[in-house]
Amino acid sequence: MVEAVAYTQGECFAAGVQFARAEGIVPAPEANHAVKGAIDEALRCKREGRAETILFNLSGHGHFDMAAYQQYFAGGLTDEAYDEGELAQALAGLPRVAEAA
Fold first, then answer.
1. Contact 20, 43 (CB under 8 A)
2. 13-to-21, 27, 87, 94 alpha-carbon distances in Å
3. Residue of 57, 97, 78 lying closest to 9 (CA atoms)
4. Cβ contact 13:69 at 8 Å
5. Mean pLDDT of the chain
6. Contact 72, 13 (CB under 8 A)
7. What is the pTM of this model?
8. What span, in angstroms and rounded, lies between the C-alpha atoms of 57 and 18?
9. CA dihedral (84, 76, 26, 12) positive or negative
10. What is the pLDDT of residue 2?
11. What is 67-100 written as a DSSP string?
């Protein structure tokens, strides 16, 4: 089962830094969302005493995104909250797609 989860960019960058320190690979900023999700799932398994296989896609390295990491370490990234009303209005304008049978 796949479930969408929203994270702030601050917690995603923190997860990317944690991953880089543990694995020696600096993830691209957009991949940090997957890293955060995988860490959360691993912590859930640890809390529940369960052994599960967790797969995630690390789709790029952050070597070309060092400016974003510099902003993160300097405290220059801000987390913006979405207005639920504006989000609902935007989603209402999307076409309906039939579900697979």
1. no
2. 12, 9, 24, 30
3. 78
4. yes
5. 90
6. yes
7. 0.75
8. 16
9. negative
10. 75
11. HHHHHHHTT---PPPPPHHHHHHHHHTSPP-PPP
| Interatomic CA distance for residues 32 and 59, integer angstroms | 10
Tell me the backbone φ, ψ of residue 27, rounded to 5 degrees.
-75, 150
Q: pLDDT, tens digit, for every residue of 50-98?
A: 999 999 989 877 778 888 999 999 999 888 888 889 889 988 988 888 7
Task: Write the CB contacts of 8 (distance below 8 Å, at least 6 apart in sequence).
Answer: 79
Rounded Cα distance between 99 and 101, Å, is: 6
- Measured CA distances, 62 to 23, 40, 53 (Å): 13, 21, 25
Q: Tell me how many helices (H) and strands (E) the chain has.
A: 4, 0
Q: What is the mean pLDDT of residues 11-21?
A: 96
